[in-house]
Amino acid sequence: MDIKQLKQFVHLAETLHFGRASEASYISPSALSRSIKQLEEEVGTDLFERDNRSVALTAEGKIFLDYARDSLGQWDMVRTQLMERSGELQGEISMYCSVTASYSFLFDILSEFRTDYPKIEIKLHTGDHEHAISRILSGDEDFAISAKPDTLPAGIAFKTIAISPLLFIAPKQGLQGQDKPPVRPDNSTPMILSEAGLARKRVDRWFKDQDIKPIIYAQVSGNEAIVSMVSLGFGIGVVPEIVLQNSPLANSVEVLDITPKLKAYEVGIVTLEKKLKNPLINAFWSQLTQST
Fold first, then answer.
1. How far is Cα of residue 74 from the mean position of the Cα atoms in its chain?
2. Which long-range contacts (CB under 8 A, 24 or more apart) does 44-49 make?
3. Any idea what the CATH number is for the domain that residue 255 is in?
4. Is 237 in a helix, a strand, or coil?
5. What is the rounded distance in angstroms from the CA atom of residue 158 to the CA atom of residue 147?
6. Does 103 lie in the same domain as 28?
7. Computed from CA positions of residues 85, 89, 90, 95, in that sequence, does the dihedral angle turn out positive or negative?
């Protein structure tokens, strides 16, 4: 097997789609199918279960995926070490963050790095911030912007870049069906909350400490949607301050002055500690440490 073949396997394992994996590998689906079949013959077992409708990793395929990722990581490390000795780093690193985080932090983080390392390509993927650390742990990304959880998983390196308070927000025009604007959540207040994640854990703890059993009007994925629903008067929401600052609906809601305050978000860059041995990863991390 060779490096290209391992990359093709990883593309297919991550997409579980021959069309998308072949595009990422710059070969035809039939050529990818032949390559995977050759790989399976070489390792002596099926790595995928596939039919006309679906593709799935076998148990052996999941084991081989760990090997392939480790091997490709080692190859990248050796290759970049050799390039470093020749005087210039080149290659690519991947980063994951929410759209809001890209607005708030990426310019400051990447502008100096791109100037110092013009041949290192940044691959940016965006999505729900709650998936950031899991994408790092799975090896899907080199770096991510994430709120620091109450307990940081083992093997994760974290560098703080900002502190963002968690805010209670309410519609300026008042809640639908109520004459007076809300002042504080109580047992009769409709709430719009994240369906899971750090913010939800902290607000649930806050309600418990205040002996409040909230009415959950809606549970949503994504803080931007909370601002939208609050602006329409459906309830009180809880969002990080950076989300509100970047929202086009910020003028349609107001921040409630509520005590005790929710514990703020500690926002930072995360990566796997073992990846810091890679010269490309270390170059990014070291510059981040110096500039923040």
1. 24
2. 47/9, 47/13, 48/12, 48/13
3. 3.40.190.10
4. strand
5. 10
6. no
7. positive
State the 10-residue block means of pLDDT for the chain, 292 residues long. Answer: 87 90 87 93 93 89 93 81 71 89 88 86 87 87 92 93 94 79 84 91 94 92 90 93 92 93 94 88 81 44
Same domain, 60 and 76: yes
3-state SS class at 292? coil
For residues 14 and 128, membership in a common domain is answered with: no
CA distance 40 to 33: 11
Indicate if 177 and 228 belong to the same structural domain.
yes
Say if residues 217 and 194 touch (Cβ distance below 8 Å): no
Instruction: Pull the structure tokens for residue 130.
Output: 């709650």
Q: Which domain holds residue 69?
A: 1-87
Report pLDDT for 45: 94
DSSP letter at 271 equals E
DSSP string, 111-162: HHHHHH-TTEEEEEEE--GGGHHHHHHTTS-SEEEEEPPSSPPTTEEEEEEE
